[in-house]
Amino acid sequence: MLFIVTADQMRAVDEYTIQQLGIPAASLMENAGRAIAEEVIKLCREGQEDGRRDDRGWGEGDHADSDEARHRNIAEGGGGWPDRGQPKEAWRAHTGPGDRIGYGGDIIADPALVMAHPGDQHWYMLIGKGNNGGDGLVAARHLVEAGLGVTLVYADAPEALRGEAAVQRDAAAKLGIPAVVHGREAVDFSRCTGIVDALLGTGSRGAPRGAYAALIRAANDSGKPVVSADVPSGLDADTGEVYEPCIEARVTVCLALLKRGLVQYPGASAAGRIVVRAIGIPARLAPEHGPSVRLLTDEVLRGALRVDTGRRRAPDGHKGTYGHVLLAAGSMPMSGAGLLSAKAALRAGCGLATWALPAALLPHVIGTVPELMLAAAADGNSGEWNAASAAAVLRLAESRDVLATGPGLGRFEGDTDWLRRLWQQTDRPLVIDADALNMLADAGPDGPRIWGQRSAATILTPHPGEMGRLLRMSTPEVQRDRIGHAARYAREQGVTLVLKGARTVIATPSGEAYINTTGHAGMATGGAGDVLTGIIAGLLAQGLGAEQAAAFGVYLHGQAAERAALRRGDPSSLLAGDIIDAL
Ligand SMILES: NC(=O)C1=CN([C@@H]2O[C@H](COP(=O)(O)OP(=O)(O)OC[C@H]3O[C@@H](n4cnc5c(N)ncnc54)[C@H](O)[C@@H]3O)[C@@H](O)[C@H]2O)[C@@H](O)CC1
Ligand SMILES: Nc1ncnc2c1ncn2[C@@H]1O[C@H](COP(=O)(O)OP(=O)(O)O)[C@@H](O)[C@H]1O
Ligand SMILES: [K+]
């Protein structure tokens, strides 16, 4: 289970493991350093493998990572090694002519730390004065043991290291591992194979200073692959904000638990491929020491969220079984938004969908989606919504299972009061998106709390701009701490919140959050959000709870967009309608 923690939460879990479980800090550091060394060797082996393939004239595409890996870019390590890139001959030693096939005879060295021609590799280890540096020193020992060339580069005087890190410093010195100190000796990365960044971890505060900043810049400028210990130095582990400078890692070996800053952009870009390695800290301690934030995976959906991801249907099910969505959306200039949402609700599997829309718009959309029912809700010739339509929408909602509103709605006189009436006077699950979120924002930063707790599911689906209006802050401020803002708003206002954008955050009123990894930047296209509203409404109609519908909806939406992009061959040409077709 991939739990995602803050630096404070990580520290609390560390402390509990050491003090209450009695697992020595030195063991954790040993496991951490060893994991980092293993990932360095794995990267070296991949390089050698690629080199061999290139010699044979194989093209780039032949060894590209799988789509799965490319999309997620996060792997849970610590288990077995993939066969790929593992040169068996390097770790098998012949034991002489007497051995008979089938009766053993192979002597296998530690496979995780063995590679062909380790002597061709020389790695520079950037060592900070905290425990992150200690991890780097342990890794250095293991790499030397594996036969690689290693040079330690201390950011501070080695005497500055304390505790477990100082023990590792002394061990490295006794082993004769070459070391230089930044500022005392010149550091030239031009001849090394790669760099391990063990400068700053979860104890980092603010932008890297002094020697730390200089080494980060030099490492980035070198163009060598960088493997970061725990987090790229210069990244805010809690928010994903990157300071100037910040390491641009090829691989980040995240220790024990995913850090929030690694799963949100721009931090996710700085981290490169993320491998989470177990170091002896039980992951299930995480939610006992802070909020429960998890990566949204199929396992989490099926397990923690109890979603039937196979979307099985009862053999004797009928359209009444799968619920009826009412969508109040669309206006003359934005009729497509309503259409996309309504169609997506149907594709998400609801039994029936009714689109409530301004009377003057209705004749123009008849027949566009034949499966859809239409209901004129706002009178007048303009094709716009008006405040008087609240009564009609509420009446229609009485015989439907879910109400979704917002896409293409536009703004109109008295609209905040219109939305308040829907909020307070229907007991149906409610999905609020787009302009309906702006109406809610006009009710004040505590709008939902003032309007009162609804008895049914209430899901808000803002993009960062709409979230900013709800929170009365700028979009960049929202983006600077997406998980924090989403989780706080959901808890304080008692709603389920979907903060959209790359790595969408789903936050629940009980303080839990899920981070989605499906989807891609091709979804940055008009109408993609309207599709999501429809999907979530469609799932609610089928009886899913608020958390389930929001999380599964976001997951499916991204997955469908991935399929659609593969079909088109290029994510850039994705249209929102393609996502619906791929559902
Ligand atoms: N039990 C534990 O605590 C474990 C910790 N581990 C490692 O320890 C790391 C956390 O270690 P620490 O808490 O010692 O902290 P760090 O090693 O992240 O760094 C803290 C040190 O860096 C300095 N510093 C902070 N911000 C700076 C900045 N902006 N510029 C320059 N210097 C700065 C501080 O003065 C402090 O001396 C984790 O990320 C992980 O790598 C692992 O060894 C596993 C076990
Ligand atoms: N870079 C990205 N990676 C993943 N998903 C994205 C990305 N950009 C946009 N999306 C998704 O596409 C949808 C866009 O929604 P929104 O901004 O409301 O657009 P619109 O209002 O045009 O429908 C959201 O679900 C969002 O999470
Ligand atoms: K680091």
TrEMBL record:
InterPro entries: Carbohydrate_kinase_pred_CS, CARKD, Nnr, Ribokinase-like, YjeF_N_dom, YjeF_N_dom_sf
Function: Catalyzes the dehydration of the S-form of NAD(P)HX at the expense of ADP, which is converted to AMP. Together with NAD(P)HX epimerase, which catalyzes the epimerization of the S- and R-forms, the enzyme allows the repair of both epimers of NAD(P)HX, a damaged form of NAD(P)H that is a result of enzymatic or heat-dependent hydration. Bifunctional enzyme that catalyzes the epimerization of the S- and R-forms of NAD(P)HX and the dehydration of the S-form of NAD(P)HX at the expense of ADP, which is converted to AMP. This allows the repair of both epimers of NAD(P)HX, a damaged form of NAD(P)H that is a result of enzymatic or heat-dependent hydration.
Known partners and oligomeric status: Homotetramer.
Record EC number: 4.2.1.136, 5.1.99.6
Source species: Paenibacillus polysaccharolyticus
Chain segments carrying region Disordered: 48-92
Pfam families: Carb_kinase (PF01256), YjeF_N (PF03853)
Reaction catalyzed: (6R)-NADHX = (6S)-NADHX; (6S)-NADPHX + ADP = AMP + phosphate + NADPH + H(+); (6R)-NADPHX = (6S)-NADPHX; (6S)-NADHX + ADP = AMP + phosphate + NADH + H(+)
Residues given in the record as K(+) binding sites: 132, 197, 233
Single Gene Ontology BP annotation: metabolite repair
Start and end residues of each YjeF N-terminal domain: 10-287
Gene transcribed to yield this protein: nnrD
Family: In the N-terminal section; belongs to the NnrE/AIBP family. In the C-terminal section; belongs to the NnrD/CARKD family.
Gene Ontology MF terms: ADP-dependent NAD(P)H-hydrate dehydratase activity; ATP binding; metal ion binding; NAD(P)HX epimerase activity
Positions of AMP binding: 500-504, 529
Biased composition (Basic and acidic residues): 48-74
Co-factor(s): Mg(2+); K(+)
Cofactor-binding details, from the entry: Binds 1 potassium ion per subunit.
Keyword entries, A-Z: ATP-binding, Isomerase, Lyase, Metal-binding, Multifunctional enzyme, NAD, NADP, Nucleotide-binding, Potassium
Residues annotated to bind (6S)-NADPHX: 131-135, 201-207, 212, 230, 337, 408, 463, 530
Protein name: Bifunctional NAD(P)H-hydrate repair enzyme
Residue stretches making up the YjeF C-terminal domain: 302-583
Source taxon at top rank: Bacteria
